[in-house]
Amino acid sequence: MSTSRLWPFVGVAILSGAAGFGAAAWLGPAEGRAVQSGALERQEARFEEALRKLEACQPTTEAPPMRATVAVDTSGLREEIRQILKEELRAATSAPTPPAPEPRPPQPTPQSVAAFSQGRRLVENAVATGRWSEAQRDELRSLLSQLTPEQRQEIIRTLVVNINGGKVKVDLVGAPF
Description:
The chain has helices spanning 3-27, 30-57, 74-93, 110-129, 134-144, 149-164, and strands at 131-132, 169-170.
């Protein structure tokens, strides 16, 4: 297409746009413009009032710039740093204290050995029958106080593994031990 043939289309497009803008301006709500201009006037009045208040708060004379002078006793500071360094070096070069010996676990007493055997039998019976009852729990609770921590952990671990594995069904309400 040549440019001479396009001019009528361009003219129609420009006239259509102008007609649309003119119709919108003529048919648009006049009260909306009034509301907007009223709100704009109120905002402008508030702005002017805030500006007057701000100007009233500002000092009329300029305050002199603040300056601070700090004097540091460098010789005293250096001596204090030397003393701290000497103490730290002495502490670092002194012989390290030997670590405290690890506490040995208590040796099982004959009473705890007997309670451990009884507790193992109790758990083994529960595995054999497939049930853990309230009476068994009460009996195990009385035995747990007589055991060493390692013995207690072994019995409880064995019971829990069998309960979680489905070999023992818990027939009580609450904790199984």
